Amino acid sequence: MRVLLADDDRDQLAIREMLLEKCGFETLVASDAKSALMVAVEEHPACAVIDLGLPTPDAGLGLIRKLKELDQELYILVLTGSRSTALENRPERSLVDAIIEKGSPSARLIRRLKEIENLRRTGS
Fold this sequence. Notes:
The radius of gyration is 13 Å and the shape is globular. It has helices at 10-22, 33-43, 57-70, 106-122; strands spanning 2-6, 26-30, 47-51, 75-80, 98-101. By secondary structure, the chain is an alpha/beta fold.
């Protein structure tokens, strides 16, 4: 499954890219919202894992809206540095499939991606 990774922290981006590729995912990387949108247009990922603060929550929220406008079937997982309330009571919350706190075990992200992969495979 193709996964778009968008994070302005290049170290975190590289770590996630290696982890996901090791788990069998095809990764597409972007270090800002503009390049993430361009990659999505060109490569058509099945899922996007987005750092909400890209570098600000407004950039992350804008990317969520634009990605869903581009592909309503795209699964979106949001990474946040803390128990952020940036998505609470925001219309973008309904566009997001999961919120994962940075620092959570990597297995949580991988488990969610595997669930999405199974959903896409079975058409559920």
